[in-house]
Amino acid sequence: MKLNHFTDFSMRVLMYLNQKNDTPQSSLNDLANTFKISRNHLIKVVQFLSANQLILTKRGKNGGIMISERAKEICLGDLIHLLEQDDTPIVNCDSKPCIFQSHNCKLKSLFNIAYQAFIESLNQHKLSDIEFKTWSAIFQD
Amino acid sequence: MKLNHFTDFSMRVLMYLNQKNDTPQSSLNDLANTFKISRNHLIKVVQFLSANQLILTKRGKNGGIMISERAKEICLGDLIHLLEQDDTPIVNCDSKPCIFQSHNCKLKSLFNIAYQAFIESLNQHKLSDIEFKTWSAIFQD
Q1: Which residue in A16, A116, A125, B132 has a CA-CA distance of 20 to 30 Å to A131?
Q2: Is-cis flag, bond preceding B24, omega within 30?
Q3: Is A109 within 8 Å of B131 (Cβ atoms)?
Q4: Helix, strand, or coil (residue A33)
Q5: Partner A contacted by B117 (CB < 8 A)
Q6: Chain B neighbours among A 23-42 (CB < 8 Å)?
Q7: Residues of B in Cβ contact (< 8 Å) with A100
Q8: Residue A80, pLDDT score
């Protein structure tokens, strides 16, 4: 069981921006070079994070990308659920219709309860709880 | 966040065999026809379930596939963890080395704690708790 790649990478971008805070602001090139990924992939992530008010983007010479107050305050479980962009259950009973469908099968409901336990566990934390050395220390290694 | 297809399908095979119990025993063709999947895919699942004592297979004229006592007794969370065949964390910090690695990053540990909450929630149940009409009723629809 894995987070999808989009969620996994988005989390690392938010962690990086949260550490870096606004000194200095980051650029797409900065993020692309830091995480060694293509700008095209990065742009999709940045557009989603911006559309969901998790980052602030400012165009122009003094522009850049910053972490938002919302991203600092949102609980991690709610953040992961938002990034997953997926309200379908962990087990998929629909795409290939299951023979147990409409037979009072409790598989989906048991997994939904377990998923809530997963989210509630993460909701005890915020982005700032994922401590590590400051971003500057990372580049001093 | 999804279970992998192998786990998802293995669960449905076990649910089916648990309902059918041993009257009559199932065959590979029975399972392939019931779930509308290829024998090749099914054989991999059956071999794994048999190797892990979750089903019993008997060759010959009166042979077939049956649910095992272990499968009836194992807690669902432990069963899912076994089927996932994956001890790697939900976030993958290694395959593409993360810049936060070895910087006291708590992302992996927070997700491992949340995953344990997920497994413990499922461990309150067994296969028999996933109630639905008996297998015979399914084919009467």
Answers
A1: A116
A2: yes
A3: no
A4: helix
A5: yes
A6: 34-36
A7: 12, 15-16, 132, 138
A8: 94
- Asked if A9 reaches chain B (Cβ–Cβ under 8 Å), the answer is no
**What is each CA distance from B124 to A78, A116, B31, B128, B129, in whole angstroms?**
24, 14, 28, 12, 9
Helices B107-122 and B76-84 pack at an angle, to 10 degrees, of 130
Question: Which tens digit of pLDDT belongs to each residue from A47-69?
Answer: 999 999 999 988 877 788 999 99
d(CA A104, CA A50): 41
CA distance B67 to A123: 38
* Residues within 8 A of B (CB atoms), A 54-73 only: none
User: A114 CB contacts (<8 Å, ≥6 apart)?
Assistant: A90, B77, B118, B119, B121, B122
- Tell me how far apart the 2 most distant CA atoms of chain A are, in Å: 61
Burial of B59 (C-beta count, 10 Å sphere; 0-12/13-18/19+)? exposed
Tokens at residue B62, please? 């009166």
Low-confidence ranges of chain A (pLDDT < 70): 21-24, 86-89, 96-97, 102-103, 132-141
Domains and CATH numbers, chain B: 5-138 (1.10.10.10)
